[in-house]
Write a structure and sequence with these properties.
6-stranded antiparallel β-sheet; 796 residues; 7-stranded mixed β-sheet; Chondroitinase Ac, Chain A, domain 3
Length: 796
């Protein structure tokens, strides 16, 4: 176990600012259940969020399939990845048979006598995440005295007392010490998903220390002590170090008579195994601005794509995000107990003087100390004019500082959800979850929640992937919140938009057949038109998405009043290359409010990854681009596509410069954006698989081009091994692996060429006799090449 004083301290912020963090998808609770008022009833119900009382959404549960992609969205009030502070997000999940939302807003009791059957764990009336036994262990365990507590008086040694919670206020069965610190040194039921940090160099530490991969230790004391007193008589609380643990004994020495022959039990320092999961994803945080619970660059929300683990199947799971923030006034990651308040002083033993070029004694006398609401004398001597009572008065400035909020953690948790095994009859490679976020009301009434939107608002899928349409709402929003339909209710549906009526952007309309619907419209397409094509879905599926038939036989459906709050279409395979636009007909009735979504279905397989100092691997099947740590300092989103050989040949044929040499295309990948992706002296590695190629080659050449006007093809040095072609790259570009046949192979292929020649002559004679067939064939080929060229140029 590492020294407790060196454990990383999470977060911070000045007290007069609320640095809230709200989870929007999956549906965040902020301790709400089903209240019909804007404020939550009980901020201590399940966990300590430290968020505004009006945040969160009423309870509503969904399920997801293991291996599916879930778009996590949130807002945080203060900046990340900017110059003003440091911050991190820690995303985790937990599953358990007793995890539940409950049916009351009251906090679960920590006295079994107040629970049904004297068992609070099984009293289903109360919401519960962590168990009673987990909290009892926290309450009985000695707190970590190596941590920084500033000038706060933390007088009780229990792990329920922290700098942010010195009074030990209980929120559900959460352990305050575990909540405030990551990585935690004691066994925890929470499993890591991702850590997003403004300093990606810390990822090396987080990946190694995560409980996903590293075991934890704990002290098991003799049962008579634990059962009777719920704490150890010798030390006051259960020790949290090996040395102290092994000193615990029962009976205690002063209880044993000299002539007694008794068996002495000692404390045991035991190891709890790791969760046995992959290390968490660790990336650099996205940029967000100060004092703004809103979107990031480009108007998009803060988000993280979570691929739900295949071994996570359970009916009762919960997700949490913790927002850890520091103002930068001190180094929170090196702060420890040596900087705490010393005896006889009312301020922390922290070096503030050197930051301002002052001597310690002079700084202390002028208020340059770390304490509650200090008054700082900015100037050593600043006489007033005229003098006051003949004395010189220094110019003092009172700072609004709350020291229990330097190094501060906020959090939100989702309502419970299920994770189920992917059905055997679903033959698509990837399942994308498409949900609805937000609640009824205008922006002021929903704040700090959000108005309705689809999540993700823009979804990229491959032809043949599955989309899982699913959402939930509530019937107990405040009745005076704005919206269409029955007061207080959330309802949603999906209907394709009408076709484009006017040009957009450059004034060039998208060719028919490639764009379905128009985001500029506010009118849905008629579903009774047998010619409509929306994601390849049939009329029955479209009627259900519109809310016309799903679990509802007629009723008042003009505004979806008689449809239910919950909708599930299940995973549906989508087909048809194109750009699809859709809306919710109920929540689209104001000129300044709309609930619309866009979906791109591509022929090519594609994937995204953020590349920063921590590196990344962008993978599609066996093809991958690998960025090593340190190859890049600033974050960038990198997209990789795999094109079929035919699609690649179509694109190559439309470029200004023909590809030199080579016999046939074995595989083709494209990496975006088409710019330098690594530092000045760094490269990244691309591995392209040729194992699936139908045309064998004795050797392979690799060529690259950006595809821009006049761009030349460049031959790259590559190695071939076990069906993989590997080479180094610096830029985003099109990379083509081509077979390179040698002379003996060409000579050996003369006979085969003769056969091909005969076939070609026969084909020519056939089309000469039937010119209308030749014209039709040329038209189809031209359309195919033009679509491939437009598709590529739009991406570049």
């Amino acid at each position: 176990m590492r020294p407790l004083a060196l454990v990383v301290l999470l977060a911070a912020l000045v007290s007069h600012i609320n640095a809230d963090c709200y989870l929007h998808n999956p549906r965040g609770s902020n301790n709400r259940l089903d209240e019909a008022n804007r404020d939550r009833n009980n901020g201590n119900r399940m966990f300590d969020s430290q968020n505004n009382n009006r945040g969160g959404y009423n309870v509503g549960s969904l399920y997801y399939y293991s291996g599916s992609v879930l778009n996590v969205e949130w807002t945080n009030q203060h900046s990340c990845n900017g110059p003003n502070n440091h911050c991190e997000f820690v995303m985790q999940y937990m599953c358990g048979d007793l995890v539940r939302d409950g049916s009351t807003t009251s906090t679960i009791s920590d006295n079994p006598a107040n629970c049904r059957d004297y068992n609070c764990n099984t009293d289903m009336k109360y919401g519960m995440h962590e168990t009673y036994n987990y909290y009892l262990d926290c309450k009985s365990r000695k707190r970590n005295k190596g941590l920084f507590t500033a000038d706060r008086n933390v007088n009780v040694d229990s792990a329920t007392r922290t700098r942010q919670n010195p009074g030990g206020t209980r929120r559900g069965y959460e352990c305050p010490e575990e909540r405030d610190h990551y990585p935690y040194w004691h066994p925890s039921p929470w499993k890591d998903v991702a850590i997003l940090t403004n300093d990606p160099t810390r990822c090396v530490y987080y990946e190694a220390e995560s409980e996903n991969v590293k075991s934890r230790h704990y002290c098991q004391v003799p049962m008579p002590i634990y059962n009777k007193y719920t704490r150890v008589r010798r030390t006051g609380f259960i020790p949290n170090t090996k040395e102290e643990c092994e000193l615990v004994q029962w009976p205690e020495a002063n209880m044993i008579k000299e002539d007694e022959n008794v068996t002495i039990e000692y404390g045991q320092w035991l190891e709890s195994p790791s969760h046995g999961l992959p290390k968490p994803i660790c990336k650099q945080t996205q940029y967000s601005r100060d004092n703004h619970l809103g979107n990031t660059h480009g108007g998009f929300p803060l988000m993280f794509n979570w691929t739900i683990p295949n071994d996570m199947e359970h009916e009762h799971c919960v997700f949490r995000i913790r927002y850890n923030i520091t103002s930068g006034d001190y180094d929170a990651w090196s702060a420890n107990s040596t900087m705490n308040k010393m005896k006889g002083k009312n301020y922390a033993n922290m070096d503030i003087a050197s930051r301002f070029g002052l001597q310690p004694m002079n700084a202390d006398g002028r208020g340059y100390v770390f304490k509650q609401n200090p008054i700082v004398e900015l100037f050593d001597e600043f006489p007033t004019t005229p003098p006051m009572s003949g004395n010189d008065k220094d110019f003092g400035l009172r700072l609004a500082i709350n020291t229990n909020q330097f190094g501060r953690t906020f959090q939100d948790r989702s309502h419970t959800f299920a994770v189920r095994r992917r059905p055997d009859d679903i033959d698509c490679k990837t399942i994308h979850n498409l949900n609805v976020r937000g609640k009824r009301g205008n922006i002021v009434q929903t704040y700090p929640g959000v108005e309705y939107d689809f999540v993700p608002n823009r979804l990229h899928a491959r032809d043949g992937d599955c989309i899982h349409f699913q959402w939930t709402g509530s019937n107990t929003n405040p009745n005076n919140n704005d919206g269409q339909g029955k007061a207080g209710t959330d309802r949603s549906n999906v209907v394709m938009l009408e076709p484009q009526r006017y040009d957009e952007g450059s004034g060039v309309a998208v060719p028919s057949g490639n764009k379905i619907g128009h985001w500029g419209n506010s009118y849905p397409e008629h579903l009774d038109d047998s010619k409509i094509s929306f994601l390849g879905l049939g009329k029955e599926d479209l009627d259900q998405l519109a809310g016309l038939t799903h679990f509802q036989f007629r009723g008042e459906l003009s505004e979806l009043d008689d449809s239910g709050t919950y909708f599930d279409l299940g995973p549906k395979k989508v087909t048809g290359i194109g750009e699809y636009h859709y809306l919710c007909t109920r929540n689209n009735n104001f000129s300044n409010r709309s609930q619309k979504g866009k979906m791109y279905v591509n022929k090519q397989a594609q994937t995204w990854a953020q590349v920063d100092w921590n590196g990344a691997e962008v993978r599609i099947g066996d093809n991958k681009a690998t960025f090593s740590r340190g190859s890049r300092n600033t974050p960038i989103q990198v997209r990789m596509e795999e094109w079929t050989s035919d699609a690649c040949d179509d694109v190559i044929s439309t470029l200004d410069q023909p590809i030199p040499g080579g016999d046939s295309t074995l595989n083709c990948v494209a990496v975006y954006p088409p710019e330098r992706l690594t530092g000045p002296n760094s490269t990244y590695q691309i591995d392209i698989s040729t194992q699936g190629a139908t045309k064998l080659a004795s050797s392979v050449d690799v060529y690259s081009t950006t595809g821009a006007a006049g761009a030349q093809w460049k031959k790259l040095d590559a190695t071939v091994s076990d069906g993989m072609v590997s080479f180094a790259a610096t830029n985003g570009a099109i990379y083509v692996a081509r077979s390179a046949r040698n002379v003996p192979e060409i000579a050996g292929g003369v006979a085969a060429a003769a056969v091909v020649l005969i076939a070609v002559l026969g084909t020519v004679i056939y089309f000469c006799k039937k010119p209308e067939k030749w014209a039709a064939l040329r038209k189809r080929a031209g359309e195919k090449a033009q679509y491939a060229k437009r598709s590529f140029q739009s991406k570049v």
